Amino acid sequence: MAEAISILGSTGSIGRQTIEVAENIGLKVAALTANRKTDLLEEQVRRLRPEFVAVYDETAAKDIKIRLADLNVRVASGMEGLIEAATLNSVKSVVTAVSGSVGLKPTLAAIHEKKRIALANKETLVCAGSIVMKTADECGAEIIPVDSEHSAIFQSLSGRDRSELKKILLTGSGGPFRGRKRAELADITPAQAVSHPNWSMGAKISVDSATMMNKGLEYIEAMHLFGVKPEDIQVVVHPQSMIHSMVELIDGTVIAQLAVADMGLPIQYALTYPKRLPSMFQHLDWTAMRDFTFEAPDLENMPCLALAMRAAKEGGIMPCVMSAANETAVHMFLAGKLGYNQIYDAVLDATEAMGNVAEPDLDTIIEADASARVFVAEHYSK
Hints:
The protein is of the alpha/beta class. The chain contains 15 helices and eleven strands. It is about 45% helix and about 15% strand.
């Protein structure tokens, strides 16, 4: 394949896996972006030789520009740099693998240029799903989900009329603390929280998986991606992480997508859709699998999921406030400035402190995002 892609967030977990996939199937990488990890970014640039590089942090951007002075590559910084990386003429697909709401503007810019969006950034749809999906529809841009769960739903619905859908069954492993009471988790350390039993992910998303906020964010994403109401989605805990999600059709048929727990597979499918290519990933060994178990989520002891489901029903700016407050609280927890159980407390307080706006525009969403971050930082600083 000779098509070119842009990777927003190339030094993160999804970004690194995207590079492996691109190299394996012969995709050219035309642009890379990062926040601060200049050592890894330099290594990637020297290997892939993209035409454009953007570093969000201004100081880090100056550093990488000096490091890459001997190469024929343009270097930019800040949000303008991310937007340019997402809208290069030579690029067909944009992998949005940045973490947080910083991915919103570049994604919208890419949509306006009718790029294919391989969407791995949850906050884009959680914060502004209605705006993003409407814009994509108006511009004729494709949004192909990279999350394993949403990719599974996308694949299970492929070629079907949406009128046949009765319910989305959104699966999740339950995280490393499944079955434990909330009172038992007060002293959980960052090292324990990022140790996921099935998936290898970045620190922030690993903590979200532990609290099950990740599943709450995915719940909101699924609403927007597939045009369904909250009551049309059921969260199902599936500890083995072999079934990545399912759809129930109106006649009672359930269609599931199964594969090994490797994010490289949904990344590759998003980049090659509607085609499938041979992959470098392990195939399931059916004779080695013994148990598939399922259970309802424990909303009492995983209250972040319950909070996210409530925010989904309230709509407006509530999902954005919740997501921004959670992102700030998780980073504070990882930095040792907040206890594990306080993540939920901080997010709950932020959602209760800020009034809702039913149909926000983009500026209102961005303002709500910033306000929620300030609230958590000010009220929960040790």
